[in-house]
Amino acid sequence: MSKLLGKYKNGNYSVGIFANGTKIRETEDDVFTSSFPECIDLKITNQCDRGCSYCHENSTIDGKHGDIINSKFIDTLKPFTELALGGGNILTHPDLIPFLQKLKNKKIIANATVNQQHFIDQQDLIKYLADNKLIMGLGVSLIVPTDEFINLIKQYSNAVIHVINGIVKLEDLQRLYNNNLKLLILGYKEFRRGKDYYSPEIENNKQIIYDNISDITKGFKVVSFDNLAITQLKLKRLFNAREWNEFYMGDDGQFTMYIDLVKKYFANNSISTVRYDLLDNIENMFKVIKNLE
């Protein structure tokens, strides 16, 4: 078993977080009832120079940064809460390092998602963040699976390659096979630019991934999915009831939430159309999310 990073109580259950990303929940009740979010999808900037046509956040080179230093709810986060930092290109945020240091001091687990090109171009910064444990997990959004990229990402034990169902092609995944890599498949979000970009080709790519998902899972050390990909790929068909109850981590809003520090609102997830102005306390915001269920 990997090293235990921390253990905490949340509602009627306890949570153990391990260095390899494993999470174990335990309760004596029949259901897990959370009082605060275990994981928060935190958008800290809308600035990015990539201009991806399917970006559901509409990030641009002129996008604004969020105020990550003075947001009051940060001080109410519980130790060992996981923050999935995203954007935009988070590496451009001028307050990134002091913010990550603040999170580390509070025993908040920060995970960062960056684009493959930014990952390659800004290795000095990425290495600094990883070596100083300012980030515990590193997600890298795939563009093209080159030898350079494969050799580089293998140097990070907690790195996970992110791909989008409908965008990624089977041959790109096959190029990554048998390299002891971790993969996260995200659902395609028909939201903002993602809605305009949607096409029959994307639907065809989804079908190919659907048909080959069993082989795909064999090509990587670990394969995980967000809830949207779970729905799109109908993954429940691959598990018996016991396995599903063990591995499924819960619906959006049950243990998670989304916060946009650029526009200063929170929601169930990043494609929710119902959004609320930020509050000063994370538990109060989570109560709003829980009442949506």
Would you spell out the secondary-structure blueprint of this structure?
Blueprint: E1 4-10, E2 13-18, E3 23-26, E4 39-43, E5 82-86, H1 96-105, E6 109-115, H2 116-121, H3 123-131, E7 137-141, H4 147-153, E8 159-164, H5 170-176, E9 182-186, H6 193-197, H7 200-211, H8 213-218, E10 222-225, H9 227-232, H10 241-247, E11 256-260, E12 265-267, E13 276-277, H11 282-291
Parallel strand pairs: 4-5, 4-11, 5-6, 6-7, 7-8, 8-9, 9-10
Antiparallel strand pairs: 1-2, 2-3, 11-12, 12-13
Overall geometric form: globular
Q: Which residue ranges are poorly predicted, with pLDDT under 50 across at least 5 consecutive positions?
A: none
According to DSSP, the number of beta strands is 13
- Report strand order across the widest sheet: 10-9-8-7-6-5-4-11-12-13
Percent helix range: 25-40%
- So how many helices? 11
Mean pLDDT: 96
Euclidean distance between termini CA atoms: 34 Å
Biggest sheet, in brief? 10 strands, mixed
Query: What is the gyration radius calculated from CA atoms?
Result: 18 Å
What string gives the helices and strands in order?
Answer: EEEEEHEHHEHEHEHHHEHHEEEH
Q: Which secondary-structure class do the elements indicate?
A: alpha/beta
| Strand residue percentage | 15-25%
Short description:
With 293 residues, this protein is of the alpha/beta class. It contains 11 helices and 13 strands.
List keywords for this structure.
alpha/beta; 13 strands; 293 residues; ten-stranded mixed sheet; 11 helices; single chain; three-stranded antiparallel sheet
